[in-house]
């Protein structure tokens, strides 16, 4: 057993017994890992539950042992001190959405540096932005699909085409199966693929169609991520970001 340093993004915490937590963390060096935090709810604990809020970015020293499901942390601290992410009601709703999405979509226990860097950068942008971020969940889902291996073939887009979610590409004719986006939502998806986070406010989308596109992106994940059965937190987003 060795002691190793890493940074990590907290995806989820689960209460375990009266005083402890099990925390799921997407780590920079070890991929997705779970840690048992003993005594987290004791008054003098060094590992306070507040350190493990969803999407917190931490640095830590741990004991990593191959083929072990639960590991142990020896030291921990906040790597990034967010200003609004957990205080602002709308941004916190997005945080809960991210937590659920990433917990369901990320499974690899191998390091994925590019994905870690992407998530860290997008979290920092979301924390600091003062602009509208109503389309941020859509952007996150689309870009995450790139790392998971089913990013749409954007170059296949032409006006008045529909997006075939089974094949991940745009087509001139509706497929025989029901898993496709109509022309308007297909155009929205194409627009989304062309913007950076700071350009998201420029997307002048109909609010109802924006909500519909998020539902369809969740369906897209259902088709391509094994065991992905949908999300519940997007219902909160409908209210907060409408």
Question: Mean pLDDT score, rounded?
Answer: 93
- CATH third-tier fold name of the largest domain: de novo design (two linked rop proteins)
CATH architecture of the largest domain: Up-down Bundle
Number of helices: 6
Question: Helix proportion of residues, in percent?
Answer: 25-40%
Number of strands: 8
Q: For the largest sheet, list the strands in their spatial order.
A: 1-2-3-5-4
Q: What percentage of the residues does DSSP assign to strands (E)?
A: 15-25%
Question: Which class do the helix and strand fractions yield?
Answer: alpha+beta
How are helices and strands ordered from N to C? EEEEEHHHEEEHHH
* Main sheet properties: 5 strands, mixed, barrel
Radius of gyration: 19 Å
State the shape: elongated
Low-confidence parts, pLDDT < 50 over ≥5 residues?
none
Going by CATH, what is the homologous superfamily of the largest domain? Recombination protein O, C-terminal domain
What is the class of the largest domain in the CATH system?
A: Mainly Alpha
> How many separate structural domains?
2
Keywords for this entry:
34% helix; 6 helices; de novo design (two linked rop proteins); 242 residues; single chain; alpha+beta; 5-stranded mixed barrel; elongated; 2 domains; OB fold (Dihydrolipoamide Acetyltransferase, E2P)
């Amino acid at each position: 057993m060795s002691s190793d340093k890493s940074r990590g993004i907290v995806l989820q915490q689960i209460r375990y017994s009266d005083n402890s937590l099990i925390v799921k963390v997407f780590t920079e060096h070890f991929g997705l890992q779970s840690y048992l935090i003993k005594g987290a709810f004791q008054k003098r604990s060094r590992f306070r539950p507040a350190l493990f809020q969803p999407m917190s970015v931490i640095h830590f020293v741990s004991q990593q042992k191959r083929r072990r499901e639960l590991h142990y942390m020896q030291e921990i601290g906040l790597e990034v001190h967010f200003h609004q992410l957990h205080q602002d009601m709308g941004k916190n709703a997005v945080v809960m959405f991210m937590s659920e999405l990433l917990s369901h979509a990320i499974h690899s226990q191998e390091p994925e540096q590019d994905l870690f860097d992407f998530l860290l950068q997008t979290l920092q942008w979301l924390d600091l932005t003062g602009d509208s971020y109503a389309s941020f969940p859509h952007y996150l889902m689309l870009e995450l699909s790139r790392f998971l291996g089913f990013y749409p073939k954007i170059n296949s887009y032409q006006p008045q085409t529909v997006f075939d979610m089974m094949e991940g590409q745009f087509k001139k004719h509706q497929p025989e199966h029901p898993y496709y986006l109509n022309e308007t939502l297909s155009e929205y998806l194409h627009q989304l693929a062309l913007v950076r986070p700071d350009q998201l406010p420029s997307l002048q989308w109909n609010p109802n169609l924006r909500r519909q596109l998020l539902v369809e992106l969740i369906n897209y994940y259902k088709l391509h991520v094994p065991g992905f059965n949908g999300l519940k937190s997007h219902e909160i987003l409908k209210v907060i970001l409408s």
